[in-house]
Amino acid sequence: xxxxxxxxxxxxxxxxxxxxxxxxxxxxxxxxxxxxxxxxxxxxxxxxxxxxxxxxxxxxxxxxxxxxxxxxxxxxxxxxxxxxxxxxxxxxxxxxxxxxxxxxxxxxxxxxxxxxxxxxxxxxxxxxxxxxxxxxxxxxxxxxxxxxxxxxxxxxxxxxxxxxxxxxxxxxxxxxxxxxxxxxxxxxxxxxxxxxxxxxxxxxxxxxxxxxxxxxxxxxxxxxxxxxxxxxxxxxxxxxxxxxxx
Length: 246
Fold this sequence. Notes:
The chain is of the alpha/beta class.
């Protein structure tokens, strides 16, 4: 919900050396992002938070079956595979959102790194529901699809109660599976004080009223670009996960 150049300047001001773009279901900003980061001496990481059809792209009964998965291009081949997946998501998998599934992911997985994503991620959802057996099975499945050392379990803290439960169980899944952890923060606006403006923008996009208590919204004011120091303060017991993030 912000301009690429503004995000790059903010990252530079915070002393960041790398920056990733992970728009939902699209790669439209990749070229402008690549140019802007290179101009500022920041390493660009091209990615996408894809919509993944839980039961395959042929299933078209509920958009609630669209899960999230973060994919990052590690290599040139990975970038080409990411472009292929995002294209197929719109051409073959579209249902409310452009979707891929695990069959497509397995076919075009080489050169990609996966992250378990937010509360809408399949592994994270199972952790939120305290279903450790399911979370473990899913984590192993994604690791098998993407390859050894290419799937990371995410820890996030936007002050949401469900995330605290998910994080506790995600740590257990990491211990059981041996999969590496990263700490991340969803970035939908650059500064904390932009939260209200972002909320208004979401209402305008969806045709919702601010007064509607049942409308879609991002709870709280923590979906901004946090510095490394802020992230370290949020996860003081996870220095290895923070190192993995960098």
